[in-house]
Structure formats: C-alpha cells, structure tokens
Amino acid sequence: MSLAAYTEGFEQFAAGLPAGQRAARREQYERFLKAGFPTPKIEEWHYTDLAPLSERRFSPVVEGGAVPTAELLADADRLVYLNGQLDQAHSTATALHGENPLLADGDSVTALNAAFATGGLSLRMARNERLPRPLQVLAVGSAGAAPAMVHQRHRIELGENAEATVLFQFLGQGTERLTTHVIEVELAPGARLTLYRIQDEHADATLLTRIDANLRRDSRLEAVAIDCGTGLVRHDFNVVLAEAGAEVALAGLYQPAPGGHIDNQTRIIHAAPHCRSREQFKGIIDAKAKAIFVGKVIVQPGAQKTDSEQRVANLLLSRKAEVNAKPELEIYADDVKCAHGATVGQLDDKALEYLRSRGIAADAARALLLRAFGAEVLDQLAIPALRDRLAARMGLAVEEIFEATIEETAE
Amino acid sequence: MLEVKGLHARVEGKDILKGLDLSVRAGEVHAIMGPNGSGKSTTAHVLAGREGYEVTAGSVLFDGKNLLDLEPEKRACEGIFLGFQYPVEIPGVSNLTLLKAALNARRKYRGQPEIEATDFLAWVRDRAKLVKIDPKMLSRGVNEGFSGGEKKRNEILQMLILEPRLMILDETDSGLDIDALKIVADGINALRSPERATILVTHYQRLLDYVQPDYVHVLAGGRMVRSGGPELARELEEKGYGWLEAA
Questions:
Q1: Quick check: A360 and B105 CB within 8 A?
Q2: How far apart are the CA of A397 and the nearest CA of chain B, in angstroms?
Q3: In a shared domain, residues A390 and A407
Q4: What three-state secondary structure class fits B176?
Q5: B2-246 CATH choice from 3.40.630.40, 3.30.300.180, 3.40.605.10, 3.40.50.300
Q6: Are the C-beta atoms of B49 and B70 separated by less than 8 Å?
Q7: Minimal Cβ distance to A359: which of B76, B93, B121
Q8: Which residue spans within A29-88 are E strands per DSSP?
Q9: CA B230 to CA A332: how far, in whole Å?
Q10: How many angstroms separate the CA atoms of A173 and B203, rounded?
Q11: Residue A46: band (very low, low, confident or very high) from pLDDT cuts 50, 70, 90
Q12: Alpha carbon distance B172, B155 (integer Å)
C-alpha cells in the first residue's frame, strides 16, 4: 500500500489553503494515511474492496468539463457543482453554498474526505421556516485529461418544525475519478426533511457517499435513493433516532448496469423510545452487475416501543448477476416490534406468460413487470419530471394510463 | 378457421395428447368435454402456445397459417384468445395498462395506429358494463385482490375488449356461482358472430345451458372419442364419462 500519490496530492492541496487551516487538514490526512483505504478484512467493507485505489494517482484539481443542462430541474432552486467547484452560471441558490465543519470518526474514507473537502451545500433553516421549492444539489464529475478526485462536505440543519426537500444528484462522465461526499443532517424537534439521493456514475468512477442524520423529537426524515450507472459505488446511510417520536423512512431502488457495483449500507440506531423506522429497498440486477444491501438496525437499551421494519427485494435477471442482501438486527430492548425480510427472485414466469397470451411481446411484457417492481420506490419521488427521466433512463418507463380519467368517465 | 390434425403433445415428459383431431369453422361454438386428466386443458394451452407444452407430432393450422410456428403473443395478435382457468395476479401492472398494451399490440400487428386515449376509455367503460365490472377496479393491478368470480369476469372483459376471432375458454365456468356464470355466458354470447368461433373447454354441462354449442366433443386419453351435437352434453350429464371410457 503506497498512497504516495495521495500524499503528493495533499501537499499540493494544502499549499493552496489559508495557513490557519493546514494543521487541521493535515491531522485528518494523517488519520487517513494511518488507516489506508478499507479492505474486505473490515466487516463493513466485506463486499467492496477499495484497496486498488491505493496505487492510483488522482489529481485534486480538475479543469474544464460541462454541466449536462438537461439535468437541471425547472421548478427547483439549484446548487450546481462541476468537479467539486460551485458553478455560478447554473446555480440559483449560491447563498446556500458554504464551508462545513469537518467532523470525522474512525472511518478512513471520512478522514480522506475531511482532508481534501471543499465546501458544499450549507443549509441552515430557522424555526418554522419552509423551503418553497425543492433544492437540487447537482454534483457533476466531468472531463479532465487525468484521473481526478473530488471530495465535498455538505450540511443540512433544520430548526424546529422547519421543512425542506433536498435532492442530491451525483453524475459522472469522462475520465477515471474518485469522488466522496459526506452529508450531515441535523433535524430539530418537529422538523421534516425529504431527501433524495440519485446516482448515475460512469464506468471509471468510484463514488463513496455517507449520510449521517441525527433526528430529534418528532422529527421526520423521508429518503428515496435511486442508483443506476456503471461505477463502483458505496453508500453509507446512518440514522440516529435520538429522541422519542422521531421517524425515518428510507426507500431505495438500485439497478447497476453491466459492470456496475452498488453497495448500500444502512445503519439505523433507535436510541430513544417510541421511534419508527421503515426501510424498503429494491434491486434489479442484470448480467455482470453486483449489488449489496446490508441493513443494520440497532435498538439500544431503553428504546422501548420501537417500531421498525425493513424489506429488501431483489430481482435477478441473469445467472451472471450477483446480489448480497443482509439484514442485521441488534436488539437490546424487550418491548419492540422489529420486522425484516429479504428476498431474491426472478421475474414471475406466469405473469410474463399471461401478458404474452394477450398479445404483448416478451420484451414489452418484461418491461411492464420491471416497471411494476421498481414503481413502488420510483413513484415515491415527488418530483414528476425527475421520476419520469429516471424511469426512462432505467428502462422502467411505461406510458401513463389515465387512472384519473377513467374515474371521471365512469359515471 | 382452425384445423388440428393428429396432434401429439407432451407436458413434463408425459404424453398427454395422442392424436387429437379438431376442425372449427367460423361462426361455430365447440365444447370440449371429458374427464379429469383427459387433456382438455392441455389442448387449450397448446393452441395458445403456452410454454412447457411440447408438440411432438401433428399440425395446427389457423386460417391456413401454421400456428405452432408462432410465439404466444403473435397468436394473440392473429386473433386467438385464451381465457385462463386460473387468471394470474400481477400487482403493479394495472388492468388498464394491460388492456391498452394488448389492444395496441394487436393494432400495431395489423398496421393500424394506436387507439386514442378517450376512445380507449369509452370502449373499456362500455364493455365493462356487460360483465358488471366497476371501471374503477380497472385501475388496480391485474386481478389483484379480485375474487374468483371477478377474475373470471375480468377474463371475459379482456376478451370483449380485444375481440378475438377464436375464443378458447379453459374451464371458465369452474368455481362460479349461478349469477357469475350467467354474466360470463352473456359475455361469450355477445361476441358470437359468423366471423368468430369459440372453443369451450369444460367439465360440466352447466355452462352449455347458457352458451348453446354447435358441436360437443368428448376427449379421453388424449384423443376425441366421440363427437356430436348439443344432445351429447346432456347424455354425458346423465350418464357421466364412465360408459365412454368402457366403450
């Protein structure tokens, strides 16, 4: 394990920092250097091996590239990052960009992120404040002749009863790239956050994201995570239900393209009584793609009346597809409701046959069934333009069928 | 319209049909009756092209075309409809989605443009009345949460909407109470016309009280052992199948 190129990169990066910041960054970098990239020997990294990254050389500075303007949402406020730098031209909410605290725990990727992190979304909402529109944070990795790395740090802090919808979109194209995003979320009592995390990376990309959310009394976090693309992707989603009445609902749909690798790790800690957690993840995995879902739920002593449910369903479309789905429950309280279920299956042959018997070609029938499978998660995206674009991108689009209209004409 | 000659078919390595002959002309209603395990359902499935049914000998011509060469969806587009004995539930795919996709697949096959949304809905609403299905139910997943009778009525509704030329109904009458049976029969009768033909696969004479067949065939041991007019069905009802098998 050499990491020499990272050290060179760090010296280059540190030289550009204000003198007062260097020591803190160096401390983080030393921490990363000592631990190195995680290897499968670490339980949490059993399915995703980052060791090959050690020998790579990524430049911490990237020039050029273009924002895919088709991805800009019309009815949203926007922060657009091109290779980690704020893109003023396409951003409408530049006031929400800022530097964020660089907290780190024992995790070496988080330390790496902290050593190199540039700013990101810095959203701080006062009590009872509401975001009038969704906020789109579009992070694009694009162009550049040499392999590059981008590390960003974001923070969302909602005051009491504040409400917001924030969409993080990670897109990549072009050359080899290492990207990390750490997103910290603090919800004050009664706050409500809807958080979307969309990933569509390219084949030479490594994307590592981590979301840490802390939920106080009666606050609610609703998250929908959609993954497609071909990169090596690892997501950590850590939620602490810190006070009574807090609720989290995570939904995810992952569909790695051939060559893609998507590792979803969730960790929900019920630290207080009367909290509720829901997880619903679905995977569609085709040939030469790999998906992992590990869902940890920890019910701490005293977290009585915990209500927790975790459902994972995977569809394997090929014998050359791989999926690992693992629920992990640790329960240290006795008056709790904790349900979990994980399935791995194939498309229903009987349903396929039925549709074909009605004249629908095999491909179209398969698309209908896949869409039905994915729709449960996809339809939770309350931004129709985004939902439809993703459905089309993932081959899950089915023509809208006038449900409303038939009710109107039913008289 | 349909010419079946010397048809042999195998399911899971077991020979079920052993030289079946059947000739159906436009405008006719044929009933295929017979004891359990005689090959009635296999006949229906082989004609519709379901997977897992291996034809080992014989021929099936539909309007002169070799039906056995066609994929199930192509057979449907050619105008064959199979009413399932056990209609499948498909959560997440609404009945309307299925109907519209099926209707448009057919139109595309014939080189016609897709149906207009308003025309489609008006057509569905009109047909739903015939089988007493609330159109609102059609926004739900295919057969999802439908009772046994509702599923069978839904099969008939699909048939009424798709207007096939050859309707093959596999024990559509099984498990129906008398009211549902009448609705199903009305649906079948509504489609009777000189251009269309019907094959009713049934174990009992009951349905034939409401849908008058032109021909009744008795299938036993994978072959037609007796053919006759409607009176044959009544004879079977009285005497059972035993006397035929002994003969």
A1: yes
A2: 12
A3: yes
A4: coil
A5: 3.40.50.300
A6: yes
A7: B76
A8: 77-82, 85-86
A9: 73
A10: 63
A11: very high
A12: 8
Closest by Cα among A1, A13, A361 to B70: A361
A372 and A290 in a common domain? no
Q: B115 and chain A: CB distance < 8 Å anywhere?
A: no
Work out the angle at residue A153's Cα, subtended by the Cα atoms of residues A69 and A260, and round it to the nearest 5 degrees. Answer: 60
Could you give phi then psi for residue A257, rounded to 5 degrees?
-75, 165
Residues of chain B with pLDDT under 50: 247
Structure tokens at A400: 């809208």
Q: Which of A327, A346, A365 is the last residue of a domain?
A: A346
Residue A350 has its nearest CB partner, among B88, B122, B124, at B88
Give tens-digit pLDDT for B75-94.
999 999 999 999 999 998 99
Q: Nearest by CB to A406, which of B51, B135, B162?
A: B135
pLDDT per residue over A390-406, tens digit each?
Answer: 998 998 876 554 443 44
Task: Say if residue A341 is in the same domain as residue A409.
Answer: no
> In terms of residue numbers, what domain contains A379?
350-411
E strand or H helix at A120: strand A120-125
Q: Cα distance from A349 to chain B (closest Cα, Å)?
A: 10
Which of A346, A370, A387 is a domain's end point? Answer: A346
Q: Please give the ipTM for the structure prediction.
A: 0.94
CA A85 and chain centroid, separation: 20
Touching check for B161 and chain A: CB below 8 Å? no
